[in-house]
Structure formats: C-alpha cells, structure tokens
Amino acid sequence: MSEPRVALVLGTTGVTGTPFAEQLLEAGWAVYGISRRQPVLKTSTPLRNFTHLPVDLADFDALNNTLRGCPDITHVFHCANTGSGAARVQSMANLLDAIEAACPRFRTINLLQGMKYYGCHLGPFRTPAREDDPRIASNDFYYDEEDLVRRRQAGKAWSWTALRPHSVCGYAQGNPLNLALVIAVYASICRELAEPLWFPASGKCFDALFQVMDAELLARAAIRVATESACANNVYNVSNGESFRWRDLWPALAAFFGLQTKAPGELPHSDFLADFLARHKDAWDGISARHGLRPFPIDRAPAWVRGDYTPPNSRFAAEYDIISDISKFRPTGFAETIGNADMFLRLFDRYRSERIIP
After folding, report:
1. Is residue 252 within 8 Å of residue 341, measured between CB atoms?
2. Full-prediction pTM beyond 0.90?
3. Over the stretch 331-355, which tens digit does the pLDDT of each residue have?
4. Distance from C-alpha of 145 to C-alpha of 87, rounded to nearest angstrom
5. Any idea which architecture 176-211+242-353 has in CATH?
C-alpha cells in the first residue's frame, strides 16, 4: 500500500496557491494551507481534508510550533510571495529548518519560479529560454532561494523541483491581479465608454511572441513533477503548450465582450494600459456599483501592470519575445495542454459568474 501523500501549500490565497490547494484536494490529497487569510476555494472543492494554518513564514518560532502539529506532511508546494531579497531567503531557511525538524515523512519541495529567472523583465533576452541558460548578473529573482534549497538538499533524503511559467492566469478571491483579469476589466471599461478594444501597447508588442500559463494547469504540472522520482532535483520551463502573438489572439478576446478590435494606433506611450486604468477609475467604480460586482483593487492595477519591468517596457507592453523552451518538460509524461484563447475565454466566463466583471 502506497504511503499517503500530504501537502503543505504556501500562499493559499494567491492566484497560484489557491488552485494548487484545489487541485490537490480534488486529487484526493490531504492539504495544509499557509496564508494570512482563510482562502476561499471553489465550491466544488472537497474541504474535509483541508486545514488552514494562519502563520507567518518570517516568524520561525510560530512556524516551527505550527508544523510540529503536522508531522504527516510529505510534499511542500511553495507558492508564497514572501517579500523580496533577504526576507525571501530567510523565510525559505525558516521553512526548511521547521519542516526538517517537525516532519519526518517530508519527501520533496516544489518551488514556483518564473521567467524573470531569465531576466525577461530587464529587456530583450535569449529566447526561447532554456533551463541551463547562464544566470543574469544584474538579476535577483529566485537565485538565492534556489541556491539555498540546493545546498540544504545535498546529501538529504528529500528532493526539490522548480517550475518556471510566465504570466500565470487564474482566479483567487481577494487576490485577483493577473493578466487575464486585468484585460477583462480593461475590456469592460472600453465597453462602458463605447470604445473599441484598442490593443493597449505598441505594434512591436502586438507582433512579439508571448506565453501564458493557466493556474490550474500549472498546479497539475507541479503535482506531476513533485511525485515522479525521475524529476527530482530538476527545474522545468512550463506553459500552456504553445506561444502566441497578441495580433492573432486579440480579436477573440474582443469578441467575448462584443467589441470591435483595434490594432495599435497612435498610443501616447508604453504605459497606456496602466494610465488608462488609473484615468478611468471612476468609470470602473460606476460599473461595479451598477452591477453589484465584487471588489476589484483597481487602485493597485496600474502599478501591477508596470511591474518590475525596465521602462519603456511593462508587464503588458514588452516589445520583445517572452518565450521559453519546454522540451525538457515533455518527457515527464505530463501531456495536458490548453489553447491560449480557450484559457482566456474560460476565465472571462468565470469572472462573470463570480461577479468580478459585468
């Protein structure tokens, strides 16, 4: 009889952590979830094997005491956004110290990284990015955490894996900022203003190659690599399956909202989308009140759109290819893919059903 699998998911209120918890529970796992707030999982999710742990990863004593009550944990899925720099490394050290001391059945930790590992936010980079590409000297995303895990794992019985998606799209109640929902809010405002759905960046961005990742698909991919011994101590690029150009996808997104699509025109600058959202906050507030929508943090959206990208680029407006080579991942046996347009349209439907957009 196989040993029961018990997961610890860090960051269960996030756009990645919420579907990780949901997918694990639907697959029959017992799940402990760490987050400041109680996560709101899909109503179809079986909750009898879910335990919420409201503990701060930066507080080692509290974390250690909490995990001593969870000695059955076998797998850790790290989806938490725990600050930056030294704070992230210290939180990772706290986690490893506590999990090794309290959980004798601990087998593996899965790290959620991203394409900022390759410096995609700093400007044009080598594409398609490969897992063995040289690190970027001026980049500080993920390296120190990964190095810590590699050092701590050496000679141990447990293993690690890491996944590097780009632009994960999904839904988590109370933490809704992701590319799909920002586009949906933008389109809803355009419809309110009786405007066409302008592509909110330059022609170069319109024609560049891009990739996205469905959050539920990402969760299932993480479960796969975390439970396959052949994947131990490896990192994998992942995506929905294929890259795309916004030029080819934009008409389908506009059609969902009943809008005419417009290619890039005389846009003022690459911060068009961020400035549009800031400029039309009152319009969104009116839409939200009239339709009885759930709160959306539109005040935070402009800064999210700009992200960590080096101007004139932003999270949306990068004028260069952002794609990775996923050939290393294919032999893991995880064959599931999703069409990019299918993902966006399914999420738009969900946002409507959840009363996030009208």
Report:
1. yes
2. yes
3. 999 999 999 999 999 999 999 999 9
4. 10
5. 3-Layer(aba) Sandwich (3.40)
